[in-house]
Every structure is written in structure tokens, then in C-alpha cells.
Write a structure and sequence with these properties.
The complex is a heterodimer of chains A (844) and B (118). Chain A is an alpha+beta fold and 844 residues long. In chain A, helix 2 (35-56) packs antiparallel against helix 3 (61-89) and helix 5 packs antiparallel against helix 7. Chain A starts with a helix and ends in an 8-residue tail after the last strand. Chain A has six domains: 3-233, Up-down Bundle (Rhopdopsin 7-helix transmembrane proteins), CATH 1.20.1070; 244-344, Beta-Lactamase; 359-467, PAS domain (Beta-Lactamase); 486-588, Beta-Lactamase (2-Layer Sandwich), CATH 3.30.450.20; 600-682; 684-836, Histidine kinase-like ATPase, C-terminal domain (Heat Shock Protein 90), CATH 3.30.565. Chain A is built from 27 helices and 24 strands. Chain B has a five-stranded parallel sheet with strand order 2-1-3-4-5, with helices on both faces. Chain B has a single domain, classed as Response regulator (Rossmann fold). With 118 residues, chain B is an alpha/beta fold. In chain B, helix 1 (13-23) links the parallel strand 1 (5-9) and strand 2. The chains are: A alpha+beta (844), B alpha/beta (118).
């Protein structure tokens, strides 16, 4: 073999290797636009190289012819591959629709048939000549008609392809543009070489095309590795694009889909049946024609759209951006579709929370981890007077006052910086200086890593409550002071009757050393067993009738078992409508009770004694009066000659007897009366009586006696006197009779006049007027004293021990009246008794 | 003309005697010492005047007085109460025509009786 042939074969081999490698390499990375057809192109060139080697190395003509024909498969298909590659590279993939692509292969196919049957018609080659040069079998022929058809077709395709590539080259950014000249050179070289061969432009026998392929190969390799023709970045980019969650659609200027990633296909619910590339967006995404229509002409937009219905509805953020070439001409658009449903939902939730925070009735303050305020809600402004602008960036400490203990703040920081929630009260100052109290709940907010990023404080204004508490405390204190210092016993029970409070005096009186001994005890425990039922009824009645205040007395048991009487006022304690207990203010009335008891005993004893005494007096009275009656009676009968007439000495003797007996009688009577009055056994009885009847009774008793002594007796009744008076008429009669008796006794001659009259509107009087011996003025006061008489002389004559007037006066005074005396010695006396007019009490 | 009858109900003989002597000039007198006998007596006789002592053994003067006053036949009979006890007298004086407190003056009694004589 000659050097030339070796050189020739070598170059072809190299070309084959290079194109084969390229074919394989680019086939592996076929994602890149144009990579597939390029790979096929390289494959056909590889095939061409290999078969040309075989052709040249053919031992015989027949073999060579065979391999020649086989080579031509590559020769006819390469232009088509070129065109396809160019179309794809130029972004005109749409030309390569299903029906068209096979059409392109029609001519090549026919050409192959012509070539295969060349012997028959010689339409392709004729006058074939073969010769050997340096071990290689070469060939030379004239080209037949079909050859030129094939050539023309091929060159047209190549031309179109080249034009397309050149055009798109010019439009591409400079970075990519640099690839193309190398590519063009690489591709053009074989055609130049081929043209030379075909048109026999140079007197070279062998086909230069393969050599050119070497150049091609070298060029391609150079372009590939230098300019990274088909490099990783686009592939990486593709991976990213396919792996994106966001949907990406690239549309060309006529709204056909140039590129679409799988995310976009999912979002738009495009089925996997048809390849959307090359179709109009509206054709593949049919559910929202209106939407497509809307964005038909929009090149730049950022919107939110909803796709899907009801439960499945999802929100997407739609971003349209224009794609422009170097000249800023729009060449297409890229649509990004991002699923923002979750974000939208989160936004909605945030909006709701925001609204809640904004309109919250409690103040809300959010600070960052350093304590700088980042947000305050309107309520905060309302409460403190600081607007959001004024306080943002500030520290909540500006609200601080000294009234909050420093301990509180320290504890607060400790708690929340260790990640726990803190609750407590602050005393803060408003912008206008006013003090207020708030109850705060402060919590830290952590990020995903557990670091504290913010603090949230929720604060409630408790100023009013604090004030009320303070007032309550104060009044409680005051109450306590009063109650503790009161000398009265004050204690309280709860609604069940258990003692909740007892002041000092209670403890002292009951003999307990401390409040603890008494608290919790039931009130019934402190009372004597006998009185428990009654006491319980009293309280129950008070509770049922809701009587505000009652008084009752009951015995309690002291610590040592003594009985202590309480006289207490009990009040119901209510809180609003609810009954919560009793309050009692009591006095130790044991002493009083004892005194009362003693008094009652004494009274009973006195009554008993008095009764005994009355009985005694009655008995004595009877025992004394009966014999007296005998003496007086007989003496008087003797005197009235009932037992025959008496001699003067006998008469005188009887007179003496009578006198003494009368004296004795008087003494007895007065003594008994005095005893009765002094012993208080004579209680005035009061009843209705008629003054007329009284007078009549007195008169009928005394008139005779007066007349018996030869005295004139007259009685008068004032018509103005009430028909009925109320009083102890028996005693009044006694008094009247007593006076009349005295008048008769001390009057020797003349008259006795008894007059009952109306003294004034409230009093009436009994008057006894006589013409007796009279009472000297110096004796007038003393006669009302017991055992007094005016003068001894008169006494001797008129025995009477003088108790009568004393008793009379006492009785009159007892009745609320008074006795008056007018007297002149030798003229007479007038006794005037004034008594109050007592009306009959109602119901008697 | 017969003298009217005066019944004296008095347990003390002395006093009874005195009453009797006092009234004998104007009345026929009958003295009875106890209540039950007096009642029996009154069942058959209508005296013009009764002198009644309140302090009687057995049946009390008060009861007798009630009986007298309760008896239709004795409606015209005058009753003079004689008693030492003015308090007792209080209670029933409305039923009697007169109350006299012991010791009683015979003169007074005679005068009163005369007045009450029918």
C-alpha cells in the first residue's frame, strides 16, 4: 500500500472515530435542543466514513460498487439530517411535524432505489471506471440524471439548513454565536469537498469528502470541547427545569409550546398522551379557554389564578415574562406557574389572625428577641396612648413605674428567656402620665431550631379591678379595725353556719385563746343542746323571710362549759342576690339574765310573801274585827236602849266602852290599811265606774251617821263630770268615806257638804266641806303624816289614830292625784282631792 | 201588821245576836249560822231582807248571794252584805243592795234596814 493510501485511510478512520464518538456522546446528552439530530448527523457521517473505508478497501469492483451504494445511504440521508438538525437548532421544530418528516425522506428513498437499480437504467451513474491507486480501488464516473436530482435536492436541503442556522446564529447571544462558525466550517468543509468532487472542480480522483470529514470531525471536536457545544450547563439547566415544582412553559412568538416541564404538565393536567411541544397552548390546555384568551397578547404579567373546582381548587401564581433576542425583539414568552395554594391558605389564616389581633380587646405587643417592639395592636394604643409609630423599635420598659416591684421584672426576664410563659401584674404609666394596672401573659416565640425570635405579650387592663380590690381591702381593714376594737361581740358564719370570723371579744367571752379554735365550728356546736332546735328555727325563719335584722337571746357554751347568754342582732350577709352567711353582733347578757332570774325569783318570793301577807291581813282583819264588832255592836245597842233604858251612870259607862271600842276599831282599820299599802299588797284595781254611783254609795253609808249627829248632809254631782270614769273606785270610795267620816267626827254642829265636780279638762275633784272645829295652820301639813292628829284635845274627843289621812294621801298620790286642805279654826275644813281623769284604755 | 222577815246569815253568834237585836224593832228576825241551812231555809221562805256575812264556813257568802240572786222568788229580797274584807266586797257588790264593812254600827244598820224595808 502506498503512502498516499495509508494517509487517506488514516484520515478516514480518524474522521470515523471522531464522528462516532461525537454521535455517541451527543446521543447520550440528547436533552439539549438539537442534540438528537446532531447525533444522527454524526452517526451518518460515521457511517459514511466507515463505509467509504470499506469502499476504498474493497478487493473487487463488485464489492466496491456494493459498498459505494451502501455509502450512498449516508450520502442521501445526511442532508435531511442536516436540515432536521438545523430546524431544531433554529427553533423551528414545528416544521418537523409527523407528516412532513417522512416526506423529506421521499427523494432520498427514491434515490436509493435508483442507485440500487443503477445497472438497469444507469440513471445515477454511468461510464463507471475503476482503477487502483496505491492499493485502493478508486472510481470515476459520469453522473446520471437522477444523480443531479439527488444533488439538487440535497444541496437545497443543505442550503436551507445552513441559512436557518446562520440566521439563528445571528439572533443568538454572542456566547452561543461563537459556536456556529466552527460548526459551519465543520459542516461546510465536506460539502465544499463534495462539490469539488461532484463538479470535478479539481483534478483529483478521490473523493475529498471524507478528508473534509476529518476537518469536520476536528472542527466539531474543537467546538465541542472548546466552546462546549453541547455542554453540561444546559443539561443541568434541563434537570433543574424538569425537577422544578413550578411549572414552566416556553412559548414562541406564535404561542406554540417550545418547552414545557413535567411540573407544568401536571398543573395543567395535560395527559401524557400527546407531546405538547409544538402545539398551541390552547390546544393542550382546554379547560380554561377564557384564560388563554386573556393572556393571548400579554407579554408581561404577574397574577394569581385558580385552577380546578371546589375541593381540588388550587391557587397558582402566574408569571409571564417575555423572551427577547439581541435586538430586543420578542421571540417568545416564558410562563411560570407556581402552586401557591398553601401560601394562599397560610395568607388567609394570617389575615384572620391578624384581624383577631388587631381587634382584640386586650393589648398585644410583639418584640424581637432583644425586647424591641415590633408590633402593637390598636388596643395598646387605646390603653397607653402611644401610637404604633411612636413606640415601634422602643422597649416596653418605657411604660414601667416603680410601683411594680423590680423583682417582677427580673423574674419576667428569667422566665421568658428560658422559654417559658410568664403571667403577672404590672403597674404601668400611660403616655399622659396616668397610672394603670395590667395583667400580662408573656410568651416567647421560637423558630424551628428552638431559638427565641420574638416575645408576645397579651395584656389586660385591670386598673378598675385593682381599684376595687384596693377599696375592698381598705374597707375590709377598716371593718376589721372597728370590729376588733368594738366591745360588742361580732362574728360571722358562712351559708352553712360555720364560723368564718370572730372578733376578740367573742374569744374572750367564750374563753378561747385564738380565733383558730372557733373558726370552722358550727354555730350549733356553741349553743346548749336544749336551745339548738329553737335557734336553728330562728335562723331558718330569718333566712326564709329574708328579714334583714333580727334580735334574739340564747345560751351558748363557753370553752370551759359555762353557760353564757348572748343577746344578739343577726343580719343576713348577701352578695348580690346570693345568701353567703350570717353576721351577728352580740352582747354578753349573762349577768342581765342572771339578774333577771334573780329578780324573777325575788318577785315570785315577794308575790308569795305578799300573798301570804294578804292572807294574813285578811285573817287578822277578820279575827280582829269580829270581836270588835261584838263590842261595838253591843255597846251601841246598850246605848240605844235596846236592852232597856240606862241610868245616866250606865249610859256614861257605855259611852266610854263605845269610845274605846271605836278607837280600837279605828286603829285596827288604819293599821291594816297601812300594812296593806306599805306591803304593796294593795294594788290599785282599775275599772270603769260611775261617779254618780260612787257618790250615792258614800252618801248612803255616811248620811245617817251625819244626821245621827244632828248634822246637815248634802251631796252634789257636777253634770259636767263624765258619766264614766276609770279607776279604783273601791279605794276612791274608801277615801271619800274616810274624809266624810273625819268631817263628821270633827264637826259638832252645822253641815257636811260633799261635792264631786269637774276641775279641768284632765282632772276631777272630790270635795268634803265641813263646819267643824278646823285645823290650825301649823298642823295642816303634819296631819297627812302617819300617827298624827291635830291636837290631843280633839283626839281625846275624837279618837282616831290619824292613820286615815296618811293612808288617804298615799292612795291619792298612788292614783296620780293630790289632796288639798283649807281649814280655819272654829270655821271648818275643806278637803279637796284632785284626781286625773283616766279614760278607759282600749281593749279593757 | 206583821213585820217583814229579815234573814240573818252570820256564823259568829255575837254578831248574829247584835244584828238580831238591832233589827227586831222593825223586822221578824231569823238567824242561820251556815250556808247550806240558809239555802234550805230560803227554799221555803221569802224574806224581805237578808243580812249576809261573806265569811261563812262551807258555802261562801258569795255563792249564797249568787243563789239568792238567781232565784226568781227572791227577786224582791234586799240583801245587805256584811264583811270585814273590803276587797272581797268589791267583787260582788253589784249583786247586793248594800255593803257594810265590819265592824258594823247597829244604828247604821237599823237605819239602812228601815230604808230597805218594803
Amino acid at each position: 500500500m502506498s503512502l498516499q493510501s495509508i494517509f487517506y485511510l488514516s484520515t478516514l478512520t480518524i474522521a470515523a472515530i471522531i464522528s462516532g464518538s461525537l454521535a455517541w456522546y451527543t446521543w447520550r446528552n440528547q436533552q439539549t435542543m438539537g442534540a438528537k439530530p446532531f447525533s444522527l448527523l454524526m452517526l451518518s457521517i460515521f457511517y459514511w466514513s466507515v463505509t467509504y473505508i470499506l469502499q476504498l478497501a474493497s478487493p473487487g469492483i463488485a464489492t466496491k460498487i456494493f459498498w459505494e451504494k451502501v455509502t450512498f445511504i449516508a450520502v442521501v440521508t445526511t442532508p435531511v439530517m442536516w436540515l432536521i438538525f438545523a430546524l431544531e437548532y433554529a427553533g423551528r421544530k414545528e416544521w418537523m411535524s409527523r407528516p412532513r418528516t417522512p416526506l423529506l425522506f421521499v427523494v432520498p428513498f427514491l434515490t436509493m432505489i435508483v442507485i440500487a437499480t443503477n445497472e438497469a437504467h444507469h440513471l445515477f451513474w454511468f461510464n463507471q471506471q475503476f482503477f487502483r491507486v496505491g492499493g485502493l480501488l478508486l472510481e470515476q464516473s459520469d453522473n446520471g440524471l437522477w444523480f443531479w436530482v439527488h444533488a439538487a435536492y440535497s444541496y437545497v436541503l443543505i442550503l436551507i439548513g445552513t441559512v436557518l442556522i446562520v440566521r439563528s446564529l445571528l439572533r443568538w447571544p454572542s456566547h452561543y454565536r461563537r459556536q456556529l462558525p466552527w460548526m459551519l466550517l465543520a459542516i461546510a468543509t465536506p460539502w465544499l469537498a463534495n462539490a469539488i468532487t461532484v463538479f470535478k472542480l479539481l483534478p483529483i480522483l478521490i473523493d475529498l469528502t471524507p478528508i473534509a470529514f476529518m476537518v469536520t470531525g476536528v472542527g466539531m471536536a474543537y467546538a465541542l470541547f472548546r466552546y462546549r457545544l453541547l455542554d453540561l450547563a444546559p443539561i443541568a439547566r434541563d434537570v433543574v427545569i424538569e425537577g422544578m415544582h413550578d411549572g414552566m412553559i416556553v412559548l414562541d412568538a406564535s404561542n406554540q409550546i417550545v418547552d414545557i416541564n413535567s411540573a407544568a404538565q401536571n398543573i395543567l393536567n395535560l395527559s401524557g398522551e400527546q407531546d405538547p411541544i409544538g402545539k398551541r397552548l390552547g390546544e393542550v390546555f382546554t379547560s380554561r379557554p377564557a384564560l388563554i384568551q386573556h393572556y393571548q397578547t400579554v407579554t408581561e404579567a404577574r397574577d394569581e389564578i385558580a385552577l380546578g373546582e371546589g375541593e381540588n381548587q388550587r391557587w397558582y401564581e402566574l408569571t409571564l415574562s417575555p423572551l427577547r433576542d439581541q435586538q430586543k425583539n420578542p421571540v417568545g414568552r416564558v410562563i411560570l406557574v407556581r402552586d401557591m395554594t398553601d401560601r394562599k391558605r397560610a395568607e388567609e389564616q394570617l389575615r384572620q389572625l391578624s384581624r383577631a389581633v388587631e381587634s382584640s380587646p386586650t393589648s398585644i405587643v410583639i418584640t424581637n428577641a432583644d425586647g424591641k417592639i415590633q408590633y402593637v395592636n390598636p388596643k395598646f394604643t387605646e390603653v397607653t396612648g402611644y401610637t404604633a409609630e411612636e413606640i415601634l423599635g422602643g422597649n416596653p420598659n418605657i411604660l414601667k413605674t416603680d410601683l411594680t416591684p423590680a423583682e417582677t421584672h427580673r423574674q419576667l426576664w428569667e422566665t421568658i428567656s428560658s422559654g417559658r410563659e410568664w403571667r403577672g401584674e404590672f403597674c404601668n404609666r400611660k403616655k399622659n402620665g396616668e397610672i394603670y394596672w395590667e395583667l400580662a401573659s408573656i410568651s416567647p416565640i421560637e423558630d424551628a431550631a428552638g431559638n427565641i425570635t420574638h416575645y408576645v405579650a397579651v395584656k389586660e387592663d385591670i386598673t378598675e379591678r385593682k381599684r376595687t380590690e384596693a377599696l375592698l381591702q381598705e374597707s375590709e381593714l377598716r371593718f376589721r379595725q372597728i370590729v376588733e376594737n368594738a366591745s360588742d361581740l361580732i362574728y360571722r358564719t358562712d351559708a352553712n353556719g360555720r364560723i368564718t370570723y370572730a372578733n376578740q371579744p367573742v374569744l374572750r367571752v367564750l374563753g378561747y385563746s385564738g380565733e383558730a379554735e372557733v373558726l370552722g365550728k358550727h354555730y350549733l356546736d356553741l349553743t346548749t343542746p336544749d336551745s339548738r332546735m329553737k335557734l336553728k328555727h330562728t335562723y331558718t325563719r330569718q333566712l326564709l323571710k329574708q328579714t334583714k335584722n333580727t334580735y334574739h337571746e340564747f345560751p351558748t357554751i363557753a370553752a370551759d362549759g359555762r353557760e353564757v347568754w348572748f343577746g344578739q342582732n343577726v343580719q343576713l350577709i348577701t352578695e348580690g342576690d346570693k345568701f353567703i352567711g350570717f353576721q351577728a353582733i352580740a352582747r354578753d347578757i349573762t349577768a342581765i339574765k342572771q339578774a333577771q332570774e334573780a329578780l324573777r325569783i325575788a318577785y315570785d318570793q315577794a308575790m308569795e310573801a305578799s300573798r301570804a301577807k294578804s292572807q294574813l291581813i285578811a285573817k287578822v282583819s277578820h279575827e280582829l274585827r269580829t270581836p270588835l264588832g261584838g263590842i261595838l255592836g253591843y255597846a251601841e245597842l246598850l246605848q240605844t236602849n235596846a236592852f232597856g233604858s240606862l241610868q245616866p251612870r250606865q249610859e256614861k259607862a257605855v259611852g266610854e266602852i263605845l269610845q274605846s271600842a271605836e278607837y280600837l276599831n279605828e286603829m285596827v282599820r288604819e293599821l291594816l290599811d297601812e300594812a296593806q299599802i306599805q306591803g304593796n299588797t294593795s294594788i290599785l284595781k282599775a275599772r270603769a265606774f260611775s261617779p254618780a254611783t260612787l257618790l250615792q254609795q258614800a252618801t248612803s253609808a255616811m248620811e245617817i251617821l251625819a244626821q245621827g249627829k244632828g248634822l246637815e248632809y248634802s251631796a252634789f254631782l257636777d253634770p259636767n263630770l263624765p258619766q264614766e270614769l276609770y279607776g279604783d273606785d273601791h279605794r276612791i270610795l274608801q277615801i271619800l268615806i274616810n274624809l266624810i267620816g273625819n268631817a263628821i267626827k270633827f264637826t259638832k254642829q252645822g253641815s257636811i257638804c260633799v261635792n264631786l265636780s269637774c276641775a279641768d279638762s284632765d282632772h276631777w275633784s272630790m270635795q268634803v266641806k265641813d263646819t267643824g272645829i278646823g285645823i290650825p295652820s301649823e298642823a295642816q301639813s303634819s296631819i297627812f303624816e302617819p300617827f298624827q292628829q291635830a291636837s290631843n284635845a280633839i283626839t281625846r274627843e275624837n279618837p282616831g289614830i290619824g292613820l286615815g289621812l296618811s293612808i288617804t294621801k298615799q292612795l291619792v298620790v298612788l292614783m296620780g292625784g293630790r289632796i288639798k286642805l283649807e281649814s280655819e279654826v272654829g270655821v271648818g275644813s275643806t278637803f279637796d282631792i284632785l284626781l286625773p281623769i283616766v279614760k278607759r284604755p282600749p281593749g279593757s | 201588821m206583821t213585820k217583814p222577815l229579815a234573814l240573818i246569815i252570820e256564823d259568829d253568834p255575837t254578831l248574829g245576836e247584835i244584828f238580831s237585836i238591832t233589827l227586831e224593832s222593825d223586822f221578824e228576825t231569823e238567824t242561820i249560822k251556815d250556808g247550806p241551812t240558809a239555802i234550805t231555809y230560803l227554799a221555803g221562805v221569802v224574806p224581805a231582807l237578808v243580812i249576809l256575812d261573806l265569811h261563812l264556813p262551807g258555802l261562801s257568802g258569795a255563792d249564797i248571794l249568787s243563789r239568792i240572786r238567781g232565784d226568781e222568788r227572791l227577786s224582791k229580797t234586799r240583801v245587805i252584805l256584811a264583811t270585814a274584807d273590803n276587797q272581797r266586797a268589791n267583787l260582788i257588790e253589784t249583786q247586793a243592795d248594800m255593803v257594810l264593812l265590819k265592824p258594823i254600827s247597829p244604828t247604821q244598820l237599823r237605819e239602812l234596814a228601815r230604808r230597805l224595808k218594803p
